[in-house]
Amino acid sequence: MPELPEVETIAASLRRKAVGLEIAGIELYFPGLLRGDAAQLEKYRGKKITGVLRRGKMLLIACGEGLHLLFHLKMTGGFHWARKGTPRDAHTRLRIAFKNLDRDLLFRDVRKFGFLRCLETAFPLAGAELRPLGPEPLELDGRDFPSLLAGRKGRLKSLLLDQRFLAGIGNIYADEILFEARLHPLTVPSSLKVKETARLWAAVQNVLKKAIAAGGSSIRDYKDTDGMDGLFQNEHRVYGRKGRPCPRCGAKVRRLVIGGRSSFFCPRCQRPRGRRPSKGTSPSN
Ligand SMILES: [Zn+2]
User: Fold this and answer.
1) pLDDT band at 281 (very low <50, low <70, confident <90, very high)
2) Catalytic residue check, 42
């Protein structure tokens, strides 16, 4: 699933290429993409894209007069530019055509979990989709981070995946962050010492910033809007590397299933400590 760095890469690309363009029409090929009434899309004809914002893993395209297109790319959603008249393929779910432009913006989604909502409000961030999200990790003041962890039970890995805790972190970056911070994924968040909390905060910042600088990670179907691969997958140190040597100490990377999600970690660099919840966890080799 595209996470914060991938969605930020897409948002930055759309900011450069789509802001200022006037929408000539929106064609919906897969009704399941739109959560709402297809007639709403008519309102966007003639509107100019005024801005593109990422919030968590979601993308908000502002079209003026309180009209917004809110996309969640989910597993495999993505945007692609295509020359006008290019026949759509089986995975193209939506096409946005622009006035005086020989290219259309296509939304493709192989797995079809992605969704679009048309928001008609001056305050889209206060709406039902975006309001529950936690702070943006790259905008939060580090001094406020320890208080976010206070009293948190459960497992650190699951907490990082919780979009109400911090917005935008998914399975890949949670594992990379925990590796960088040298923290076991099963650590109880409220048990973290001051030093460990500081390491975790630094790792959140470093890993996400590096991934954005590399244009995100290309696994499965993620591409930026030009169809270019991100490069950060070459820098994954534990994610998807079960049995391969830890780049720091050489121990074999292990995989655990936590809350139904794979977790990759180095058993030597990320030793378990504190109270470990025992339920819902199964080792996997
Ligand atoms: Zn190691």
Assistant:
1) very low
2) no
Residue 165 to residue 56: CA distance in whole angstroms? 11
Distinct helix (H) and strand (E) counts, the chain: 5, 11
Q: Which of 48, 103, 210, 261 is catalytic?
A: 261
Boundary of a domain, candidates 126, 150, 173: 126
Provide the 3-class DSSP secondary structure of residue 66: coil
Tell me what pLDDT residue 273 has. 74
Pairing, β 115-120 against β 67-72: antiparallel
Q: Which of 126, 155, 171 is the last residue of a domain?
A: 126
- Per-residue confidence at 276, pLDDT binned at 50, 70, 90? very low
129 is catalytic: no
Whether 261 is catalytic: yes
Q: What is the CATH number of the domain that holds 37?
A: 3.20.190.10
- 250: Cβ–Cβ under 8 A, 6 or more apart, which residues? none
pLDDT surpassing 80 at residue 232:
no
Q: Of 57, 108, 157, 241, which residue is the catalytic one?
A: 57
**What's the domain range around 110?**
4-126
Tens of pLDDT, residues 19-30: 999 999 999 999
At 150, which CATH number?
A: 1.10.8.50
**83-108: pLDDT as tens digits:** 998 999 999 999 999 999 999 999 99
- 179 lies in the same domain as 58: no
Q: For residue 196, give the 3-state DSSP assignment.
A: helix
Total structural domains within the chain: 2
